[in-house]
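Inputs:
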Amino acid sequence: MHLQLVPWLAAATLCATLCSSSTLGTTSEADKIASLPGQPKVSFGQYAGYVTVDEKQQRALFYYFAEAEADPASKPLVLWLNGGPGCSSIGAGAFCEHGPFKPSGDVLLKNDYSWNKEANMLYLESPAGVGFSYSVNTSYYSSVDDKMTARDNLAFLRNWFEKFPEYKERDLFITGESYAGHYVPQLALLIVQSKLFNLKGIAIGNPLLEFNTDFNSRAEFFWSHGLISDATYESFNTMCNYSQIRRQAQSGTLTPVCSRVNSEANRQISKFIDTYDVTLDVCLSTVSSQSAVLNKLQQTEKIDVCVEDKTLKYLNRKEVQEALHARLVGISSWTVCSYVLKYEYQNLEIPTISILGELVKSGIQVLVYSGDQDSAIPLLGTRTLVNNLAKQLGLNTTVPYRVWFEESQVAGWTQVYGDKLSYATIRGASHEAPFSQPERSLVLFSSFLGGRPLPEGLMSESAVETNKIIGDQS
Ligand SMILES: *[C@@H]1O[C@H](CO)[C@@H](O)[C@H](O)[C@H]1NC(C)=O
Ligand SMILES: *[C@@H]1O[C@H](CO)[C@@H](O)[C@H](O)[C@H]1NC(C)=O
Ligand SMILES: *[C@@H]1O[C@H](CO)[C@@H](O)[C@H](O)[C@H]1NC(C)=O
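Outputs:
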């Protein structure tokens, strides 16, 4: 998938359409979804619609809410945010990762590992300009930053709870991935400071936490996975590193040296590698328009690598938009990542790792996890950042680095610091971990919500011993 940490997309000219009735009533009934086109019959409630965050400027954020499959009253509320900046939590999170359904042709297939098995899942398209969320005053799009996003997300939650008062006192968790490594801690901090809601914890996957560490770990990841040569890795260490490349590319001033190093790496990696998961096959029709046929021949994989294309088609169907109570305001079609929003790219450099420290100190559970096949924000940088944070906070290791299991296979590694901060990898997972490792991701999610340690596996000591001996012989 190609949807997080997107390069800059040109802002299109907009015409503000009429959408005077931004407030759709204050109860949830108006937002109730009767049924989504092509969906199988389900018993849980689904809602979607707009929550106004600024009456005067007519700015409203779009959400999709899937109540828990069973006994929603006993389950926590979880807000999910995708990154970008500028990408949709409904397109990515709900329909490609861990929502109740995945689009396939004209229909929706039930996702067996959907996160609403464990929680009431709230997906928010944020900031305005992303997905179906909009601002009638389009000047808003010309420069949106982290502060504005966090403020609107807080306003969203306040007003959403007015629609859904029964969730106001509920245990709240905020989760997300990639650039949501900014959104999630920043929103959580506002909530902690304002003493609003019942926030229990946050979980962030392959998050951008610290610009230099995160981006510079990419070269080592590529090299250690055999995607670039020794010589190219050497160039990253001596001539130009990824944080420089990223910084220069964002400001449009790529130096010839950095450009050469970058081009050589890209040539070696090739465009047929999904950098968000270096082991997963790519969706060929996305990489090259002539390869749609090839892709059909190879659909034997369990993971649908073209699910993003299908989501794009699905969410652009008129009857789907009607069922979701969604409108296209100032845009001609729904896209996974916004083409109208101009995000303040300097904000990528704001370190959010220190905010995690503040949250831990305030008593909030903090889980940082990494899909271990992602080269966009590799585990190498993230693990170092969390480890250093623990040291800085003076937190001792309470669970030493060890494997964790899903069923009888290793699902990743984990380490816990003190009783609030933990780190985990998800083995074989992409940047959007639940997309490529749905079962393992659901186990991680469930343990996190329940405050339980990750499963240590069912193997007895003797079985482990046998395994070791066999391992030594082969
Ligand atoms: C539209 O938004 C811009 C920037 O946020 C603001 O300066 C301007 O006053 C707004 N226009 C109106 C008519 O409110
Ligand atoms: C990246 O390159 C810049 C400029 O040479 C340097 O200051 C910085 O230390 C480098 N970072 C790493 C992690 O090597
Ligand atoms: C961490 O471990 C050290 C050495 O065992 C001990 O002195 C210290 O009190 C521990 N810190 C916490 C916060 O438990």
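Remarks. The pocket of 2-acetamido-2-deoxy-beta-D-glucopyranose (ligand 1) is lined by residues 57, 137, 139-140 (CB under 6 Å). The chain has two domains: 28-212+308-450, 215-297.
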